[in-house]
Amino acid sequence: MKILSLVGARPQIIKEAMLNKEFQEAGITEILVHSGQHYDYNMSDVFFSVLNIKQPDYNLNVGSGTHAEMTGKIMIEFEKVVIKEKPDMILVYGDTNTTLAGALVGSKLKIPVAHVEAGIRQKPKDMPEEINRVLTDHVSSLLFCPSELAVKNLKKEGIEEGVYFVGDVMYDLFLKMKPQFKYEKLEELRLKEDEYIVCTIHRDFNTDVREKLETILQQLAKIGKEKKIIFPIHPRTKKKIKEYGLEGYTKDLIITEPLDYLNMMGVIEKSGMVITDSGGLQKEAYWCGRRALVVMEDTGWRELIENGWNKLAKQEEIYEKAEEILSERNKKYPSNVYGNGDSSKKILVVLRGIS
Q: In this protein, which residues make up the domain named UDP-N-acetylglucosamine 2-epimerase (predicted)?
């Protein structure tokens, strides 16, 4: 069996690497194609050294552009590779323009497409990622869902064939990396377990409007007078705080530079809770056994909202909702929401079964 995997962003590269190991052990040939949408092969990255991530067999070098330009360029160049390699299956990941382009090429050439991380849905429906997800799911032959909710989302849209709940490949990664989590930051910043909050804010809808960012910082400052908040600051957020002259709100926050994955997981694992607008961090907090306040109107990871583990909050609700989470100390942990950490193996079983 020959699989053609198409990636275009860092999280997709990492997911592919988790599956590549399984393919190698099973004797499946995998050709890796990088679209060049976000070319970020930083070989000093911890994931690259631990996972032995390989260089792509093809790089399409599409670069930046409008959504239409990028999707069109990827389709044109990827089609050439597909025709040359004649794969049995095309594998795409997530919700980028690369994902949609690969799915469209495969479906039009009548080659089965497998979508890893299928069934995720999030409002607003006109956001580019949501459009990519929905269209990719509707042209894919195999849909590998990270949660039971994702399976239900597909069923609502009439998609029931070829749907599998396999769990989240990123949970496989989390478990693999967990023995290497670092805790030096706690000692350096004099943080005691359960007695501090980790906060990350970087989404444009939270940072690019002065009033919204100011409200967020006001809310965090209020919490910061009562509980330590470590705030690894994203370059976008740092820039906007300075641009808007909002530095005064950060004096009670522990501002640091962005933390790498191992240090970030270390501080989250020992925290009291997390406040974030990051998609990945919502799940990572859950895997660390910590609850998250999600500063978004909606999230693709609704299962953690529906089971009450995480909470959504508008900018002006942060203090109130954080107090609610901190007061609910005995909340029962909802286990196995994203599988058991064997998603890569389950995907392999399905692929071998149809080959």
A: 25-351
The answer to whether 115 is a known catalytic residue is: no
Q: Could you tell me if 139 and 30 lie in one domain?
A: yes
Region class of 289: left (phi > 0), else alpha (psi between -120 and 50), else beta: left
CA distances in angstroms from 143 to 34, 159, 166, 301, listed in the order given: 21, 9, 10, 17
Question: Taking the model in full, what pTM does it have?
Answer: 0.93
pLDDT digit string, tens, across residues 31-89? 999 998 765 555 457 787 788 888 899 999 888 889 999 999 999 999 999 999 999 99
Task: For CA atoms 106, 107, 113, 116, give the dihedral sign.
Answer: positive
Q: List the domain range (segments joined by +) for residue 318.
A: 182-327
The residue type at 176: K
Model pLDDT for residues 221-277, shown as the tens digit of each residue = 999 999 999 999 999 999 999 999 999 999 999 999 999 999 999 999 999 999 999
| Residue of 34, 38, 67, 202 with catalytic role | 202
CB-based contact 128:97 (threshold 8 Å): yes
Q: How far out from the chain centre does Cα 111 lie? A: 27
**176 in any annotated domain:** no
In a domain, 334, yes or no: no
- Its sign, for the CA torsion 30, 35, 39, 40, is negative
